[in-house]
Amino acid sequence: MAVKSTMRSAERRNGPKVAAVVPEPRITIIDDDDSLRAALVGLVRSLGYTASEFASAEDFLASPPESDCIVTDIQMPGLSGIDLKNELMSKCDAGDHDHRPRRHWP
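RE: above sequence
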């Protein structure tokens, strides 16, 4: 009983406690190796994150999801991971809102 009254008096002084709502991070996996991509997506989801996947940088650029983090293979047919990073940076600099990240690029 004493604990309840202490908690109530603390609530009266500080107001009710409200939990902050933090959006779930969204992670995008881009890799041309199907088995590695599937393994990474499974790992990311098992850790409680939302994951999207693409088999190429071109597929990603054609319909980019909102992402907090992009994990990409470096060597892929077509655009490499480095080429993709450069393309995304140039689109952000140009103000292309379809490719703007939810958070600032490092």
